[in-house]
Amino acid sequence: MAAFKTKSLENIEQKIKDADENSFRYQVLKSAKNFKTSWIELGRSLCGVWKDKMYKEWGYSTFEAYISREIGIRKQTAMKLLKSYWFLEKEEPQYLKNEYAQSAEASTLPNYESVYVLRQAKAKKELDSNDYINLKKEVFEKGRDAGDIKRDLASLIRQREELKPQEAWEKRRLSTVKRFITVLKSLKYEIESSKLLPASIIKEASELIKKLEAGIDS
Prior knowledge:
Layout: H1 7-18, H2 24-34, H3 38-52, H4 63-71, H5 75-91, H6 98-103, H7 112-122, H8 129-140, H9 146-163, H10 165-194, H11 199-217
């Protein structure tokens, strides 16, 4: 873990060990260490504001107006905070417990952007459970930042696609065929309703659509 620890965090943790637990200096140092977990508290609070539409009670017509004018953050940032918090609440609730924040080193506590990338990784069909577990360790045990996790994720996806070229090709084929069927159905409906082509051609189009759909299901 030391490889991922900044000098400033090492300095804070050392001074915490040396300071009197009852002193104000100790409390300030603890606050500095806990700063990296403040996003979780903000995410939890914003979650309540979002769900209960509390911002309306405070004079804001929309959630976007509230976070912009009162909290001072962009909508994109707020949504990342919310989604990262919801992800932890649903998938990794153990990391929302106070015990985790208190026992973890400041250098390893994840920021919301790293958790947001982990959330994206969880939804990737190309990755298996072991891939996700390894990425999770990088986020929660080593405190890797979002940029590093993104690169790791992209590398893993490339590896999986290289290992399974036939599966990747099959996915592209299915996706393309489905889009083709959708376009054909739309055009067939337009031609049929407007009587732009003979019935025999429309029938052939219907048969082609059936054959394509049968090929997907087989």
